[in-house]
Amino acid sequence: MTATSRKEKAAETEAALKAAAKRVFARKGYLNTKITDITAEAGRAAGSFYNHFAGKEELLEALLQDMAASGDESADSEDHLADFSDPAAVRWHVKQYWDFYRDNAATMLALRQAAMVSESFARTVAQFGASQAADLDDHLAYVTRAGLRLPAAPDRCGGLIYNLVDSFAATWLHEPPPGWTPPTDEEAIEMLTRFVYRGLTGRDY
User: Fold this and answer.
1) Chain centroid, CA 167 distance in Å
2) To 10 degrees, what angle do helices 154-173 and 137-145 make?
3) Are 57 and 124 in contact (CB under 8 A)?
4) What is each CA distance from 197 to 82, 148, 164, in whole angstroms?
């Protein structure tokens, strides 16, 4: 086998392990998942896991990096709107994150579960949230340039937006509280957009 073939096979195995982990996390939860569950799901030998990851936590970190990269690609798309004095831009970002969370709900829940039992992983998750919030700083600058007053410093506002949308998504896209009727995707996006836009600008739309 050539060096190129070995690299391709290794990349294929790594991708299979990641995909399998997401499926098993969705069925069993992160805390109840064993490495052998992942390798069995992927159709790989149990020992192959350690050629790619030191453990479940490192695999989960790799999934987080993949998701972050996917989010960066969305932010670089041509239809990206940055002016948060315009409700359409707020809505664009709310929808992007809602769709991102919905599409990765099992992994996002796994991140929360891992953070509960590992201080180092909790820091990793916190850093991810901080980076997501920091990406909004230049978007929030448009609000002040439009002559409007933000309710707090831009970094605080970015943190508020991220935590609000993330927590709301976590509430409704995993297992909603008993007796509560989940909103549709469109209802959730509309609610969050109105709430965030009014909080930032004092205006409705």
Assistant:
1) 11
2) 120
3) no
4) 13, 12, 12
Q: Is 193 within 8 Å of 94 (Cβ atoms)? A: yes
Residues 67-104: tens digit of each pLDDT? 988 877 766 677 899 999 999 999 999 999 999 999 99
Whether residue 1 is predicted with pLDDT greater than 70 in this model: the reply is no
Euclidean distance between CA atoms 144 and 140, whole angstroms: 7
DSSP one-letter string for 114-139:
HHHH-HHHHHHHHHHHHHHHHTTHHH
Report the percentage of the chain scoring pLDDT > 70: 97
CATH of domain 57-201: 1.10.357.10
* Element (DSSP H or E) covering residue 61: helix 56-75
Q: Where are the domains of the chain?
A: 1-53, 57-201
Long-range contacts of 166-171 (CB under 8 A, 24+ apart): 166/97, 166/101, 166/129, 168/192, 169/97, 169/98, 169/101, 169/102, 169/108, 170/101, 170/108, 170/109, 170/112
Distance CA 65, CA 71 (A): 10
DSSP 3-state of 2: coil
Q: What is the CATH number of domain 1-53?
A: 1.10.10
Alpha-carbon span 156 to 34, nearest angstrom: 38
Compute the 3-state secondary structure of the chain and give helix, strand, coil in percent, each to the nearest 5: 75, 0, 25
Residue type for position 173: L
